[in-house]
Amino acid sequence: MKSKQLDKDLVKKLGIRIRNLRIKAGYTSQEIFSYECGIPRAQYARYEKGANMTMTSIQKIVTFHNITWAEFFSESFD
Questions:
Q1: Structural domains in the chain (count)
Q2: What percent of the chain has pLDDT over 90?
Q3: C-alpha distances in angstroms, 19 versus 1, 3, 7, 27, 56?
Q4: What is the CATH number of the domain that holds 46?
Q5: CA gyration radius for the chain?
Q6: Whole-Å CA distances, 25 to 29, 30, 64
Q7: Taken in order 70, 44, 33, 19, is the CA torsion positive or negative?
Q8: Closest alpha carbon to 55 in 72, 78, 31
Q9: Is residue 43 part of a domain?
Q10: Which of 15, 27, 40, 69 has a beta carbon 3.0–4.6 Å from 33's, enabling a disulfide?
Q11: Other CB atoms within 10 A of residue 3 CB
Q12: How many other CB atoms are found less than 10 A from the CB of residue 72?
């Protein structure tokens, strides 16, 4: 598989993972979650759709959910 395809697949998996975490935490609204997490709403919505994101944004999400990096990457990345 080409590198660009791997990159697209990875960010898509990241989007799925953060969406699942948001829903599991009881947030039906991206807007409320993104506000409480400290990420601009439009930016967060793009992340859930599979846009590339920074490590800083992932760290905010991991910290907000009070999970470790290992726990974050333990699902959806097989």
A1: 1
A2: 68
A3: 26, 24, 18, 9, 17
A4: 1.10.260.40
A5: 12
A6: 11, 12, 10
A7: negative
A8: 72
A9: yes
A10: 27
A11: 7
A12: 19
The whole-number pLDDT of residue 27 equals 96
pLDDT at residue 31 greater than cutoff 80: yes
- Which pair of tokens denotes residue 2? 């080409």
Better-predicted residue by pLDDT, 18 or 4: 18
Query: Is 44 part of any domain?
Result: yes
The CA-based angle 35-27-36, given to 5 degrees, is 20
Q: What is the span of the domain harbouring residue 55?
A: 3-72
**Predicted pLDDT of residue 52:** 86
Structure tokens at 41: 């709403």
**The two three-digit tokens of residue 33, written as one number:** 């979650």
